[in-house]
Write a structure and sequence with these properties.
The chain is of the alpha+beta class. The chain is built from 3 helices and 10 strands. Strands 3, 4, 5, 6, 7 and 8 form a 6-stranded mixed sheet that branches. Strands 1-2 form a two-stranded antiparallel ribbon. It has a two-stranded antiparallel sheet with strand order 9-10. A hairpin with a 5-residue loop joins β1 and β2.
Length: 225
């Protein structure tokens, strides 16, 4: 009768298998992370598209006039959580056209707005258009397909995106571009279309640098950068 072998893995063979698994994990984990972020970026773009459509509906209902940055005397609103407040920012002016707080939350952001009287949404409006008196009109925007309406934002306030370096605020609290999606941000333009744009970060101030005409992005109604 032939002798049956009970030979198992040697230590060297086991180490080789472990090394191969570690190499494969090192290769695949970043791929999976990028895939998850791409999914979040796509969800964010869907939010932005809905916000852009809501903005366009508002503009059409108000004689082609953009919503204002903050609020007017005697101008209040009931927020989604059921509380009335004199604060009536731009996102509450377009809220009736979406009726969903989730649309105002970027999936890559940690904070989630639940409809409370707060400005901590993660999208900001271009304050060079909505922080003006009298309110900006659609007809005054020279390059609607290239002019920023709404974008990913970050910071303590959320009224609007100020021109360099802030995304905007009705107070002294700054609002920055939110660089959350593969070193860039999602932008809604004044014609309603949405696209991702790469955003540089200043190595000294650590603040995002607004993309400009070289990237097909304009901020002012008169068609200048």
């Amino acid at each position: 009768m032939p002798k049956q072998s009970n030979r198992g893995f040697t230590l060297i063979e086991l180490l080789v298998v472990i090394a191969i698994i570690a190499i494969l994990a090192a290769i695949l984990f970043p791929v999976f992370a990028r895939a998850r972020e791409n999914a979040r970026k796509s969800n964010c773009q869907s939010n932005c598209k809905q916000l852009g459509m809501a903005l366009m509906q508002y503009i059409q209902d108000y004689d082609e006039t953009l919503p204002i940055l903050g609020w007017l005397p005697g101008d209040g609103v009931v927020w989604p959580n059921g509380k009335w407040d004199a604060c009536h920012p731009w996102h509450m002016r377009i809220y009736p056209y979406v009726k969903n707080t989730g649309v105002f939350n970027c999936p890559s952001a940690t904070y989630k707005w639940q409809g409370e009287v707060s400005q901590m949404i993660k999208y900001g409006a271009n304050s060079t258009l909505i922080a003006v008196t009298p309110p900006c009109t659609l007809a005054s925007i020279q390059r609607p397909a290239d002019t920023v309406a709404i974008a990913d934002s970050d910071g303590e306030a959320s009224y609007g995106i100020q021109q360099t370096p802030y995304l905007g605020s009705g107070s002294s609290k700054p609002r920055y571009l939110g660089v959350r999606h593969s070193d860039g941000a999602n932008f809604v333009f004044m014609d309603g279309h949405v696209k991702w744009v790469k955003v540089q970060v200043d190595p000294v101030t650590k603040l995002p640098v607004h993309p400009g005409p070289q990237q097909g992005v304009y901020w002012r109604a008169d068609g200048t950068s």
